[in-house]
């Protein structure tokens, strides 16, 4: 569904851009067409084909969705959430096939689900941290110039200090009986 939605948005954008045909915006249109084109090739087309294959129960479609989910994890935080939804659907609809190809890999992922979810949460948190740092980069005050004071030189004069003498403690004597 997400692949089809992405392809529809790309087609709508390209149709609108080509219909306007304004020479003043050719650079911007080329930039966004290239960006959406790369996203379509990398994510939207494979997820659309994989989803269509899952609906038609083609055996290779699950591996396409697995690869697409692995690529989506790196687009934190939104892509990580979408990859989590993909993995959730793949693991809930898992059917063990006699060939054992993708089924062995899915069984491995099912056993390692907790570390996988924790890694995806860490990737999402990293994306949020980097995104917030990028958003607030102009708000943070730039570092001020540091003024370093030199270390004192020479040996300090200790002649006016009183000398310390060690006096061992004395214990009180027990009274005689």
Topology:
Blueprint: H1 2-20, H2 26-55, H3 61-72, H4 78-92, H5 101-111, H6 113-135
Helix pairs in contact: 1-2, 2-3, 3-4, 4-6
Give descriptors for this structure.
mainly alpha; 177 residues; 2 domains; 62% helix; 0% strand; 6 helices
Describe what is shown at a glance.
The protein has 177 residues and is an all-alpha fold. It folds into two domains: 1-57; 59-139.
N-to-C SSE series?
Answer: HHHHHH
Overall outline: elongated
* Number of helical elements: 6
> What's the rounded overall pLDDT mean?
79
Largest sheet: none
Describe this structure in words.
The protein has helices at residues 2-20, 26-55, 61-72, 78-92, 101-111, 113-135. With 177 residues, the protein is an all-alpha fold. Helix 2 crosses helix 3 (61-72), helix 3 (61-72) runs antiparallel to helix 4 (78-92) and helix 4 (78-92) runs antiparallel to helix 6. The longest helix is centred in the first third of the chain and has 30 residues, at 26-55. It starts with a helix and ends in a 42-residue tail after the last helix.
């Amino acid at each position: 569904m997400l692949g089809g939605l992405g392809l529809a948005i790309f087609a709508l954008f390209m149709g609108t851009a080509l219909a306007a045909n304004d020479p003043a915006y050719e650079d911007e249109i080329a930039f966004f067409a290239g960006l959406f084109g790369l996203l379509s090739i990398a994510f939207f087309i494979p997820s659309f084909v994989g989803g269509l294959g899952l609906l038609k129960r083609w055996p290779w479609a699950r591996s396409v969705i697995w690869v697409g989910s692995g690529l989506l994890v790196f687009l934190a935080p939104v892509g990580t959430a979408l990859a989590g939804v993909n993995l959730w659907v793949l693991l809930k609809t898992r059917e063990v096939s006699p060939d054992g190809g993708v089924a062995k890999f899915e069984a491995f992922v099912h056993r390692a689900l907790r570390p996988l979810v924790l890694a995806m949460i860490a990737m999402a948190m990293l994306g949020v941290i980097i995104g917030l740092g990028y958003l607030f980069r102009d708000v943070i005050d730039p570092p001020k110039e540091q003024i370093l004071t030199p270390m004192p030189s020479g040996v300090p004069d200790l002649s006016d200090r009183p000398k310390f003498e060690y006096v061992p403690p004395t214990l009180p004597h027990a009274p005689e009986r």
